Amino acid sequence: MPQNGFTTTILHSDRLQSVEHGAVHKPIHTSSEYAYADARELAAVFQGKAGFTYGRQGTPTTTALEAKISKMEAGTGTVSFATGMAALAAVFSTLLRKGDHLLSSQYVFGNTNSLLGTLAELGVEVSYVDPTDIAQVRAALRPNTRMVFTETIANPGTQLADLAGIGELCRELNLVYVIDNTLTSPWMFQARSVGASLVMNSLSKYISGHGDALGGSITDTGLYDWSGYANIYDSYRKGPATGWGLLQIKKKGLRDMGGTLSADSAHRIAVGAETLALRMAAHCSNALALARMLQAHPGVARVLYPGLPEHPQYERATQLFGGRYGGLLGIELADGVDCFDFLNRLKIVLMATHLGDTRSLALPAAHTIYYEMGAERRAQMGIADSLIRVSVGIEDQADLLHDFDQALQACLA
Ligand SMILES: *Cc1c(COP(=O)(O)O)cnc(C)c1O
């Protein structure tokens, strides 16, 4: 981060560029096309000069958001996308080719798991490993491995990858290291600090925070030397090599595949991001209090949360995230407490998918977001049939604890 703190930097980011009429927000630019008075200027922009051509490749509004995200992640550049999935699809499909090997965490977001299946059908070798154990990660590498992918805190099992260990391994072997930072957000964790090459964020989650916009981003940390990466096309080997990877992701992922973030969503995400630090602090403290309460509750068999000392990666989480453990937790209910009955008795908590919203959300994971993948893969990912995934919101803490307690008490009665 620059000299200023996290929130100061985000709040004043737009003003540091030239905002029209002294407006404090970057306007929502709705123009699809950008015209130039001089045809040579138009040609120059097409040939790489900074500027805008067609909205599918970005607008001044998405560019302003990208600048903010680069600051949050301490990166050298960011490309935004219509959703987090569009961002992940762009990274994998533009940087990997048939015959390359991608090593992925076995605990990934369900839709990412499905996307990796599609990639495998197209000829990329994809294999899965337990990323909490560096010995297993090392053993799973192949001569054709090009990229290693993991999330920070897995959803909903809350397993925590050996992020620093994988970073060292990737640096040693010159592999592209991609981290999905969605569950932690750049307020809790900058993936650059463990040597990530690229950082993905679903902007739909904590960064926008209010459940009213979808978006995704890829940030280059500047740590990877793309001059040695075989899959960069000649046309993108322009300028300093630090920019080549992101240029290819932008040209192929936005221009050719078209998963572009709308200016309207970019604006909402930028406004939401202003309070990321305040909201995350509330998510984290509510989740920790709830995890402690539930762990001692007779209606609960097990709580999955990295902030509990019983969590297998508690020490690692404490060290990497500075004593903050995120807003997501898993609850395995006690025998005899039916997960549907329990959820139906919650009064404040919404039964909904999504996470990172200001409101608390809960769902029965095996029966919803992890239904399609089947029982075998669920077992591999540690998802029990009774597992409830909770995205803890920023409600007043006492109200939240009371809501869970009253629902559990009613189920036990
Ligand atoms: C939600 C999520 C995504 C996908 O993001 P969308 O914006 O919903 O497409 C990817 N990874 C993780 C960890 C997520 O939670």
Structural summary, described in words:
With 413 residues, the chain is α/β, with parallel strands linked by helices. It folds into two domains: 6-265, Aspartate Aminotransferase, domain 2; 276-412, Aspartate Aminotransferase, domain 1 (Alpha-Beta Complex). Helix content is 39%, strand content 14%. The chain has 16 helices and twelve strands. The strands form two sheets. It has a seven-stranded mixed sheet with strand order 1-7-6-5-4-2-3, sandwiched between helices. A five-stranded mixed sheet has the order 8-9-12-11-10, covered by helices on one side. The longest helix is centred in the C-terminal third of the chain and has 20 residues, at 276-295. It starts with 5 loop residues before the first helix and ends with a helix. The site of pyridoxal-5'-phosphate has 16 residues, from helix 5.
